[in-house]
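Work package 3, deliverable 3.1, input record:
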Amino acid sequence: MSSRINIALVGLGGQGIITLANLLAKTFRSQGQEVCFNEVHGLSQRGGSVQSLLAVNENTCPVFALEDTHYLIGLEKLETLRFLYASKAKPVIIMGNRYEIRNTVYLDLENFPEEEEIDAEIRKFAKELYIFNSVEYEKQIEIKIKPTNIAIFGALTDFDELGLDPKLAKKIIRKHFAKNPLAQSFNLTAFKEGKQWLKKQ
Amino acid sequence: MSDSETITKKKKLIIGNHAVVQGLLQAHVGVTAAYPGTPSTEIQTKLYQLHKKGQIFFEFAINEKVAFELSAAASMSGVRSAVIMKHVGLNVASDPMMAFAYFGTLGGMLLVVVDDPGCLSSQNEQDSRFWGKFAHLPIFEPATNQEIIDMIKVAYEVSEKYNQLCILRLTNFTSLNTSEVEYIPIEEKLPHKGEFLRDVNYQIPARYILHKNVHAKLEQIRVDSQFNALNRIMQPKGEPQSQDKLIITHGAIYPVVAYLNEYYKLNLPILKISAIHPLNEEQILSAIKPYKYLYFVEELESYLETEFLAMIGKNKTDHLVFGKKELEVPQENRLVAEFLAIPFEHIKGDPTDPETFVKKIKSTLPFAPILTQKELIIPRTLPRLCDGCPHRGAFYVIKKATNYDDIIPSDIGCYALGQVPPVQVGDFWLCMGGGIGTALGFSVTTDKHVVAVIGDGTFFHAGIPPLLDAVLHKRKLTVAILNNYLTSMTGGQPTASSPERIAPEQEQIDIEQVVRGLGVKWVKSVSVDNIKDNIKIFKEALAYEGPSVVIFTGTCVIDIFRNQDILEQGKKKVYIDQDKCTGCGTCLYEFSCPSIVKYDGKFVINQNSCIACNLCINVCPVNAIVLKTGGESK
């Protein structure tokens, strides 16, 4: 039996964290591996913190000691750092480079750190750091709902240690969006093009 | 979340909430009812889908009490039934539940309750295990999705063997955990017709006799072998750290305890209690007999610890017990791995050395801290109303029409987020319908304007009686009903005001008619986008000497996203004309849609998140915010 792989997915409500966890899990499952994941979202109407813990080669307990996170997939910088501070983990980090500063900052209700400070902190925790250029990627997507989560899913198939089969993953995406052919086609495109937006730091 | 499917038919990845549905189908349940409540919502939406396909009877009832009563009647007609709710929903349904426990069931009946440790989507956290003891009902608490399915079948058997309602208790850990189960695709239509046998004799007074019978029933269940078989000692594979230590925990948190037990290399046996109530003293005593030291790891309250201590004390057994206090297991919040690091450090330590328990010990476990210098301060990511949420339009109006010291009790729903800065409308929250109820009180104790904020679903659920009270006693208060045609906080389930497009099987209830029917004389229905007129109308409502109601209507963003072409959304654009903008900041500082931001000193609209709801257009005092259909804009 292979030992468990602990993956944490973090981001903001509306970014597609749970969908990404779901598609990853289905892919691992269809490859014959045991898998489970949870979802923590609560009052995360678009914009609140969302977290999902996913464990591969494990079928009952998606929760793990956060210090033992092997992969951290972050769709937003501040949420990524929040997880790292809370966990004190040293994972392989795959992060979209969005930084959402909320409008509370203009009302002097909250302070947001400078982006460079956050970048520097994240680097300290990373075993390896891969940045997905969400900012540029999303600029060239015409529609309002950006399939960045699926593009990152595509990029994850390049990680040999995760062992994701891109063919099976595509099949899972096709099935997941079967009811909406339009969503299906642009998500498949996102999956295919994802890799080119990811760079190792 | 959509249906999770995998390639093989037999095994399937499903979320815990869908495992409940699978269990109900396997148990051939005929009637189901619920009121939406996270973390139990996916059970309900799945049943609703199956209902629409004609497979099972399901109803989104007006509230949990009504849902319970409907299911109880099904049981009394000999039909297997289930009622589903979150923990606070059970408070609402507790009135019929307490009485129904005396009657007993005919068709098996299951009450599924999902607790929310950590209050991730609730006004409080409750340990529903106590309801079983309080109401004299058996409680089942599964640990995994497979156990959910299997235990539901046992629960219906127990329910029918003893004619008693059973409770299936889940938490947000079990209900939102997606994992693999043995899945049986069930397509057959489950019948919901039965027969009501009139038997009024047992309903006459002297009901204390029924109370006696309930206790007698409980004693039978206590020794039921099928029920007790759910409590087991789980032995990890590795070499145990000690032969004398036993960890005792309950179903919902067992997977985390088992994982940490191995992760910290303790490999101690774990007594997993899934048949929570009633506990069998003989079984428990024989299970703990071989061990000297007992460690209780429980989420929320010390339920098992108290029960076990009574047995240990009564039988004067020779055990050393380490509970919540000694192990420093938090009494609040979800028990994630981080919160159990110190408790496991205590379990690992020498139980005979008092030093193990007297001081807070530091985790020595695997990874040393990476940072030595001070960490950055990260602002909390507070939940907020969606970009384009119609409630924001109503809140802006309420803010403009009221004075700073007016009192605004709010209610349970998305609009509770009006409290969060920068919107900041809402002063007090209690429970479903509690906004209007407390407004009544504030109108008695103060001379301020009192404004109760409530949504459509919550108004139907529990807002009608207090509004009737306001009419009856001529209270001076204003109720703002925020109608968005959906139960939105839980992801958009139909309410009584949903249009035919959303809930074709339902009658559409007109809120204004209901309000007038209650005897409210001052009622106005307005559309959220007429912001300037609405401020005037709201001021009139506040001036009225009696109960007044303003019904704000606007479509929920969830509905817009579900029902509009996603490509169409990109074509409409709202932007700020920089030549006209005077930089007054009303749009950002007072209206505060998340899509309005300041960039290079200018107020602009973030086109990535704006959904062109047009509300801010009506807020701008100089008409600098413009809608453009098609073409480019910045």
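Confidence is low (pLDDT under 50) at residues 1-8, 364-369 of chain B.
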